[in-house]
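Lecture notes, unit on protein representations.

Consider one protein chain, 237 amino acids long.
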Amino acid sequence: MNYQLFKSETRGGANHGWLNTRHSYSFANYYDKNRVHFGALRVVNDDIISGGMGFGKHPHDNMEIITIPLSGGISHEDSMGNGSVVETGDIQVMSAGSGIFHSEMNAYESQEGQFFQIWIIPNKMNVEPRYDQISIRDIAKENELYQILSPNANDQGVWIHQDAWIFMGKYSESKKESYQLKNPNNGVFFMVVEGEVEFDNQKLQRRDAVEIKDTKDFSFVVSPNSHVMLIEVPMDV
C-alpha cells in the first residue's frame, strides 16, 4: 500500500467574504503542481457560503459534478430546466457532458451553508447532460460505511459516467472499519469530515485526508462522534 497524507491546513483556498473555500486540489487561483488531481478525482472543494449568496449562472462540460450539503441547502437552476433546493441529507449529481449552464445559491438568507463539491473526470465525453438528486437519509447507516454514488444506475445512491464510488460513514462509537476496493487498480481519497481517525498508526483530525493506492483494502479506527468520506476512483486518467 502506498499513501500520502494531506493535513487540513495544507489545502489551498480563499476567503471572498461571502465564500470561504478550501481546495484539496488545484482550483481557481490555487495551483500546486503536486495537487492537480488524484486519478479521475479532479476537485474536492469545501465551501462555506453566506446566506443568500452563491455562484451565478456559469458553464461546465465533460465533468461529473457532485454536491453534498453538510449544513443548510443550496438552490440550483440549470439550462436543462431543473430547479430545486438540495438540502442537508441530499446528494446532487450533474453529468455536464456536452455542456450546461447552472447557478448555485445558498437557499437561505439568514444562515451560512456548508457544502462539498466534488468533480470527477468522466469515462465518456460529450454525453447528453443529465441531472439527478436524491435523499440519502434513508440509506444512511449508523456506525458503518454506506454507499451514496457508483457507476451503476440500479445501485444504491446516484450514478455517474465513471468507475467511481463514494461512501460515507457516521460513527457514534469507536470502531475498527475496513474498506475493500471495488477495483484494486483504483485509488481512494479518504477524508475525516469530522472527529478523529487512526490510520496506519497516525492520528487524522477534522478535514485531514489521505490518498491511498496500490492496495486491495485498508483499515482504520474511528473515534466516537466522527464522520468520514471515501472516494474511490480509477488512477489511469
